């Protein structure tokens, strides 16, 4: 789902709701220690079926909250990261504009100086040929160049060539002044955008710190909550986790289709504002290039039982999705990375370095393709068969 850089962020809220709250519909929000049940609470609830079910529902809601908060914070961090990249793009564009204007102003000043020198040479020639002393003194000794150029125009001794040079010098000088004023304005805008970029970077860092804190929160409580849920339902923690993951996969298909439809509608009404559809994340400046990522993927195909004939299908699929960019970000849906995981933080199932590690993203993507479609070529056939594309 590769789309333009800035669109209607309202779409994100709609699609995220489909993905991050597939169970009880609990709203994302920070939890307190008091919100979590103790094992004594669980044992007491098991005394009768009704209270056991109520406690199980409560624990499911807490798991929903943890997952929804993690996804919401990840999306927020990616959005802030994209805003930072767009801000730096605009800042750099302003700097390039200022540099161009300054270069043009220098060129205009050079032309003005050259024209003035030619006027001076003609004045010298007039002097040598017996020109009026007062005229020559004005030509050679005038401190104010503008006054000199204007007065030159009233001197009958000057030839038509000199008048043309005077006009050219005046035009070039005015042009240089105008261009320098524009360059100064562009530099002021550059400074404003630099401040904006710094602010956006700090917001992105703060958002990422919130993500990191939520990851710690999830790890601290999810395992216990699954064990408590299993105890209440007389199952196993693995079974409960697997059941919830199954429900999430079913919701993901609906979310992917909704995201593709919403993004297509946004594309019809939005314009690019710079950038390339990427998000800043810590260390994203040193991620694998698209060509390097492709080679990583090709080296993995054999472990899934796929031959080299699947390479071209995978290349087409993920070129259409992300351009094989590790930090590719779709603001309409929150999809991220080479395989455009939706939500982005699902790739944490493979490893926590999913924001920047091409191998982690590719592993998640190939697992998804294998489980859902069987092979990259089958996934591509499905992708080709949908307009707008999704898989």
TrEMBL record:
User: Do you know which InterPro entries this protein is assigned to?
Assistant: Lysozyme-like_dom_sf
One GO MF term: hydrolase activity
Query: What start-end ranges are recorded for coiled-coil regions in this protein?
Result: 91-118, 176-210
User: What protein am I looking at?
Assistant: N-terminal domain of peptidoglycan hydrolase CwlO-containing protein
Please tell me the species this chain comes from: Agreia pratensis
Q: Does the keyword Hydrolase apply?
A: yes
Q: Which UniProt keywords apply?
A: Coiled coil, Hydrolase
Work out whether the entry's keyword set contains NADP.
no
């Amino acid at each position: 789902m590769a789309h333009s850089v800035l669109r209607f962020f309202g779409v994100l809220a709609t699609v995220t709701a489909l993905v991050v709250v597939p169970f009880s519909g609990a709203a994302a929000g920070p939890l307190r220690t008091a919100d979590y049940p103790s094992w004594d609470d669980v044992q007491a609830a098991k005394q009768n079926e009704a209270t056991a079910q109520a406690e199980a529902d409560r624990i499911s809601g807490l798991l929903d909250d943890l997952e929804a908060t993690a996804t919401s914070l990840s999306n927020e961090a990616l959005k802030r990261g994209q805003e930072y990249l767009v801000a730096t793009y605009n800042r750099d564009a302003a700097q390039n504009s200022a540099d161009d204007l300054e270069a043009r102003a220098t060129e205009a000043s050079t032309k003005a100086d050259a024209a003035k020198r030619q006027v001076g040479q003609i004045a010298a020639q007039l002097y040598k040929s017996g020109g009026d002393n007062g005229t020559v003194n004005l030509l050679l000794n005038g401190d104010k160049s503008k006054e000199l150029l204007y007065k030159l125009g009233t001197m009958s001794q000057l030839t038509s060539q000199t008048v043309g040079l005077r006009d050219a010098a005046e035009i070039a000088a005015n042009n240089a002044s105008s261009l320098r004023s524009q360059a100064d304005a562009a530099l002021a805008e550059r400074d404003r955008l630099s401040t904006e970029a710094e602010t956006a970077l700090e917001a992105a860092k703060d958002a990422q710190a919130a993500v990191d804190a939520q990851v710690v929160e999830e790890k601290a409580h999810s395992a216990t909550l699954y064990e408590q849920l299993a105890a209440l339902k007389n199952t196993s923690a693995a079974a409960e986790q697997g059941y919830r993951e199954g429900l999430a996969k079913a919701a993901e298909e609906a979310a992917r289709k909704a995201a593709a439809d919403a993004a297509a509608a946004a594309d019809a009404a939005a314009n690019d504002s710079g950038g390339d559809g990427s998000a800043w994340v810590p260390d994203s400046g040193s991620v694998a290039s698209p060509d390097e990522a492709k080679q990583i993927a090709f080296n993995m195909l054999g472990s899934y039982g796929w031959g080299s004939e699947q390479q071209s299908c995978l290349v087409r699929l993920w070129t259409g999705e992300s351009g094989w960019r590790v930090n590719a970000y779709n603001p309409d849906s929150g999809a991220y990375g080479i395989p455009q995981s939706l939500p982005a933080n699902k790739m944490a199932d493979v490893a926590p370095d999913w924001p920047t590690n091409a191998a982690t993203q590719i592993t998640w993507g190939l697992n998804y393709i294998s489980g859902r479609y069987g092979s990259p070529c089958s996934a591509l056939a499905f992708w080709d068969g949908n307009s707008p594309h999704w898989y």
